[in-house]
Amino acid sequence: MRKIFIQCLWPNQIFRNYRKAKMSISTSNYAVLNTGQKMPLIGLGTWKSAPGEVKTAVENALKIGYRHVDCAAVYNNEAEIGDLFKEIIGVDKMVKREELFVTSKLWNTKHDPEDVEPACRKSLEDLKLTYLDLYLIHWPYAFQKGDSSFPKNPDGTMQYDYIDYKETWKAMERLVEKGLVKAIGLSNFNRQQINDVITAATIKPAALQVECHPYLAQNELIGHCQKNGIIVTAYSPLGSSDRMWKAADEPVLLEDAAIKTIANEHGKSPAQVLLRWQVQRGVVAIPKSVNAARIAQNLQVFDFALTEDEMKTVGNLNRNWRYIVPKIVVDNKSVFRDALHPHYPFNDPY
The pTM is what? Predict the structure, then answer.
């Protein structure tokens, strides 16, 4: 297997090396979707990447060899990413379109079948692309359609819709038929919801994106997806310690003693161990960063391997701990925002 590594984390040196060698990710560092597409095992996440920062972050990532960018309409930064894509993607430019894997997601206010294609076309327009490699239903439950991405009642609770996600899926399939997307998939769906979609589908889901890290190993859900030919992507693979609703007393994944011990053994960072654990078990990971050195470091996970015992040690850290559960304050109490919706995915074990 051909390996890649970056000699130094200083951004200017990385970029000079790129110009000399034009590094690319080896085909052995891809997962293969049920469509035959190759999806790089490490991608750049763009959730929480602020306007003014995200363009530079994606540019830095692509310069050093990333070929997978994860986007979503609700992140409100696709237009800025698209400005970069327009500059650097093309036959005679830094990245050929067929070399780049781009994911976007259908937001909760666009579940009505008549809204699916316009929403997809809006992402394509913003990203300056003619097609997406993968398009996901972001969550299984719907919000009321309208101009607001988060429509709320006067008491702060969400205004929901109750569209059957199987009907939304049928509209997603038409995007494939029209050539707007190459593959379609799901995000934040549980096992039963995945089964519901598979049963109704003409085109099977190619991928499932869920929160996944050693504290939320998702072993049962990953096994179920593998049996059904669905590739799993881990979002927040490092624990998402920068999100705004972080609790002061929650466990910090990057500070876990067992992870630090393994990292020291390999001369790697805790983040690299967390990402290596994912790719070594065939799970795609999309760590977010706008820091050039960390972006580079997150790609350096193909020049070492965890031992069988180390894989077990990391796997045994599972505590079914979710960092990414949207909350709101109602009557001065913090509550799970969407737990009462009939399509809320986290009431089931997996």
Answer: 0.90
